[in-house]
Amino acid sequence: MALSKSNYIAMLIGFAIILIGFILMSGGGSPDPENVFNGEELFSFRRITLAPIIVLAGFAVVGYGIMRRGK
């Protein structure tokens, strides 16, 4: 096999981190989107700053899992 078990574990952890980041980006919906716009909820720190940083960290972990030298 090209990758070892520890590589696959690191990649799975990275994919889980990416999934958490995308979950943090979701939301911000409104029951009446045509008449009500809640900019504070939509453009919150969590959705604009924190979640993309977490997604990028997840991609870094996946990259580490791919590049890591197996035993």
What would you note in describing this structure?
The chain has 71 residues and is mainly α. It has one domain. It has helices spanning 5-25, 39-42, 45-67. Helix 1 (5-25) runs antiparallel to helix 3 (45-67). The longest helix is centred in the C-terminal third of the chain and has 23 residues, at 45-67.
Notable features of this structure?
71 residues, mainly alpha
Short description:
The chain is 68% helix and 0% strand. By secondary structure, it is mainly α. The protein has one domain.
List the helices and strands and how they pair.
Blueprint: H1 5-25, H2 39-42, H3 45-67
Helix pairs in contact: 1-3
